[in-house]
Amino acid sequence: MPTVEYLNYEVLDDQGWDMDDDDLFENAADAGLDAEDYGTLEVNEGEYILESAEAQGYDWPFSCRAGACANCAAIVKEGEIQMDMQQILSDEEVEDKDVRLTCIGTAETDEVKIVYNAKHLDYLQNRVI
Ligand code: FES
């Protein structure tokens, strides 16, 4: 069963951490954060990441649930998330910036690390509903 380690983007802002810090997740693990902001999810094969977070009682952002906005966006820092057809992110955002939509995204590797709540990034703000 794939494991998704997650970190809330708002924590980066609060702590002054950068998305590209090499030790981002190590720092998060040591920071005594609430389970809402940092932790791991067990996801079923083929299960959407957003649904699995909700099943475990978390309130992650979303709007359309269909790959047409950027509310549910996350940045993949390790591993891979496969998306169903989406119509909102550019190729550059997907391939270079590793943005994924959690409402239509499934874990492709056994271990995945993501920064969720990435809708607050400047370049995604214009597509948040
Ligand atoms: S909620 Fe709109 S793309 Fe995921």
UniProtKB/TrEMBL annotation:
Q: Identify the keywords attached in UniProt to this record, alphabetized.
A: 2Fe-2S, Electron transport, Iron, Iron-sulfur, Metal-binding, Transport
**Signal sequence span per UniProt?**
none
A GO molecular-function descriptor: metal ion binding
Domain 2Fe-2S ferredoxin-type residue range list = 29-120
Entry cofactors: [2Fe-2S] cluster
User: Which stretches are annotated as coiled coil?
Assistant: none
**InterPro entries associated with the record:** 2Fe-2S_ferredoxin-like_sf, 2Fe-2S_ferredoxin-type, 2Fe2S_fd_BS, 2Fe2S_Ferredoxin, Beta-grasp_dom_sf
Known Gene3D superfamilies for this protein? 3.10.20.30
Q: Is the keyword Magnesium assigned to this protein?
A: no
Which Pfam family, any one of them, does this sequence belong to? Answer: Fer2
Superkingdom, natural source: Archaea
| Family that this chain belongs to | Belongs to the 2Fe2S plant-type ferredoxin family.
What name has this protein been given in UniProt? (2Fe-2S)-binding protein
